Amino acid sequence: MIRNFAKSAAKILSAVAVMALANVAQAQEVEITEMQIGNPDATVTVTEYASFTCPHCANFHKNQFQELKTNYIDTGKINFVYREVFFDRYGLWASMVARCDESKYFGISDLIYNGQSAWSKGTPAEIADNLRKIGRVAGLSEDQLDACLTDADKAQSLFAWFKVNAEADDISSTPTFMINGEQYSNMDYSEFAAILDEKLAE
Questions:
Q1: CA dihedral for 106, 113, 4, 92, sign (positive or negative)
Q2: pLDDT tens digit sequence for 130-170
Q3: Are 29 and 157 in contact (CB under 8 A)?
Q4: pLDDT average, residue stretch 56-63
Q5: CA torsion, ordered 71, 77, 81, 87, to nearest 10 deg
Q6: Which of 32, 76, 125, 154 is deepest in the core (most CB within 10 A)?
Q7: How many CB atoms lie within 10 A of CB 80?
Q8: DSSP string, 114-179
């Protein structure tokens, strides 16, 4: 999925600005946690750039990612890092729900991707309510969801973090993968496995 990042950025900044205006306190920078699973000491690190509203990303997570998790992540062969890309405010909202309890991040991410075609439709209010439902299924309380979805400081910091990462790695579409610093576009599992095996053998 290729999008115009400049236009997307303007829309997201507008949404973030609205959230910031609703917060009477002056915005404070929030430290953003790098979401990763697998072996942090592995010789191969895969960094995925993806958007929760990207259909290609949802397809990857329902298919290739599950095989990668079984064969490379859960076995400790690689370290897998997930970095959100924000094309729209709904992707940002989804990220804020997923990060509401960081210990549940990847489980909530699975729920978001698996239900993408359902939760991402409707009015902004309906989409927000759909994301809340996902959060509740994951065991988040209403108070937790209220706090996470109205955290303007976190929203601003997430967006700034995304921009820095995307510019540093020259990300223009999703999903995009950095494997030990080398960029790759979306691919099927067999191609992915072949590249990982080659990197692991080095």
A1: negative
A2: 999 999 999 999 999 999 988 888 988 998 899 999 999 99
A3: yes
A4: 96
A5: -40
A6: 154
A7: 22
A8: HTHHHHT-S-HHHHHHHHHHHHHHTT--HHHHHHHHT-HHHHHHHHHHHHHHHHHTT--BSSEEEE
* CA 155 vs CA 33, 49, 191, 200, 202: distances in Å: 13, 18, 35, 37, 40
- 1 pLDDT more than 90: no
Q: How far apart are CA 113 and CA 50, in angstroms?
A: 11
Count of beta carbons in the 10 Å neighbourhood of residue 184: 14
pLDDT at 152: 85
Mean pLDDT of the chain: 88
What superfamily in CATH does domain 5-201 come from? Answer: Glutaredoxin (3.40.30.10)
For residues 83 and 162, what is the distance between their CA atoms, to the nearest angstrom? 8
Per-residue pLDDT, averaged over 163-192, amounts to: 95
Q: For the chain, what are the domain ranges? A: 5-201
Q: What is the mean pLDDT of residues 60-76?
A: 97
Residue keyed to tokens 């990857």? 60
